[in-house]
Design a protein that fits this description.
Elements lengths: L1 H7 L2 H11 L2 H10 L5 H11 L3 H10 L3 H10 L3 H10 L5 H14 L3 H10 L3 H9 L3 H11 L2 H13 L3 H10 L3 H11 L2 H11 L2 H13 L3 H10 L3 H11 L2 H10 L2 H14 L3 H10 L3 H10 L3 H9 L7 H13 L3 H11 L11
Helix pairs in contact: 1-2, 3-4, 4-5, 5-6, 6-7, 7-8, 8-9, 9-10, 12-13, 13-14, 14-15, 14-16, 15-16, 16-17, 17-18, 18-19, 19-20, 20-21, 21-22, 22-23, 24-25
């Protein structure tokens, strides 16, 4: 009766039959197949559960569900039909089909053909080194033949794990993996070579690694240099503050973000030296009122003029008034007038209620 349901496409009757047969697996598969929009695809699943494979194949073809037909061929071990279906009708799953076939070939011991299909599926950079890891001579031949940066890197990591550092360096170089090059050179004590690589390439990760190495060895000047190259300005600023490198600190703070500028300004202010730098950094970081306070406190006339350039009608009226008073005191009447004009509030007319 259940087999007749495939011919008559009576899935409601088939469910009763499967229940009477106690075939829970087939009933579950049929229920999942109900999500498919085509009735033929639903009936095909019933046919598969009942071992009616030719019927299932015809049903999938009749409703053009080549994706399900492809999966059906793969599950049946009909790899040539699966590949043909994927290449001609189900190209969206082509690479997945190649990959599954490669896995099958590998499990069957045909590594040469598996390799080709891993390449077809574009998973060879990971899968082939994994497959050949116990056959290092074949793997080395493959690495040299492929000339692929990802594979070079994998091979370099393998060589490093085997403590073959010179060969590892050669392949890290081919992979253009500058961080690993610098890391290995540091480990081997070739600090000069590591510095050349970081400087020549400008690689930020490599520069950061080298900066940490120099800091660990108390070479502060080089550490600051390479933190700067890595654009890790907060680290460079920290070292400058800890070691009294006040000139470099200013340049770094100006390159960095407002938080770092604020921190550097506080440092100069607390130190009581280079107050002009503290004012400039507060100003650039956006803390205008703080910059003004410090300018007034330290009588920095030129700094005040610079800050006043940025003041307009949107600025705090109290700040505008205080600046104009300062300019009047120092006989800078033109500047004082400009600020007072900016501070003047013009009433807005209401067109509906004149």
């Amino acid at each position: 009766m259940a087999r007749m349901c495939v011919k008559t496409r009576r899935l409601d009757v088939a469910r009763v039959c499967l229940g009477n047969m106690g075939n829970a697996r087939a009933a579950k598969a049929l229920k999942e197949a109900e999500a498919e929009p085509e009735p033929e695809a639903q009936v095909a699943m019933l046919a598969i559960q009942l071992g009616m494979l030719e019927d299932a194949e015809k049903l999938y073809k009749s409703c053009h569900r080549y994706d399900l037909l492809n999966s059906f061929y793969q599950a049946s071990g009909k790899w040539q039909q699966a590949l043909e279906t994927a290449e001609n009708h189900d190209r969206i799953h082509l690479r997945t089909t190649y990959y599954n076939y490669a896995k099958y070939l590998e499990s069957a011991g045909d590594k040469t053909l598996a390799l080709a299909y891993y390449e077809n599926s574009d998973t060879h950079r990971v899968e082939v080194p994994r497959m050949l890891q116990d056959d290092t001579s074949s793997l080395e031949i493959y690495v040299n033949k492929m000339k692929d940066k990802n594979i070079y890197k994998w091979w370099a990591q393998y060589l490093e794990s085997q403590s073959n550092m010179d060969s590892a360096l050669r392949f890290y170089e081919l992979a253009q993996d500058y961080l690993s090059l610098v890391r290995v050179h540091c480990y081997m004590g070739n600090i000069q070579k590591a510095s050349e690589i970081a400087n020549d390439t400008g690689d930020r990760a490599a520069s950061y690694h080298l900066a940490r190495h120099y800091e660990g060895h108390d070479d502060i000047k080089q550490a600051v240099h390479f933190y700067t190259r890595a654009q890790a300005y907060n680290n460079a600023i920290r070292l400058c503050k800890e070691n009294g490198l006040d000139d470099q600190l200013m340049n770094l703070a100006l390159l960095s973000n407002p938080e770092d500028m604020m921190e550097a300004a506080c440092y100069y202010e607390e130190k009581g030296t280079h107050m002009d730098r503290a004012v400039a950094l507060y100003h650039k970081a956006g803390y205008v009122s703080k910059a003004l306070e410090l300018s007034f406190a330290t009588q920095q006339f030129s700094a005040l003029q610079l800050i006043a350039e940025d003041l307009n009608e949107n600025s705090d009226p109290a700040i505008l008034a205080r600046c104009s008073d300062f300019f009047i005191t120092h006989s800078q009447y033109q500047k004082a007038v400009e600020l007072l004009v900016a501070a003047k509030k013009v009433p807005v007319c209401d067109t509906h209620h004149p």
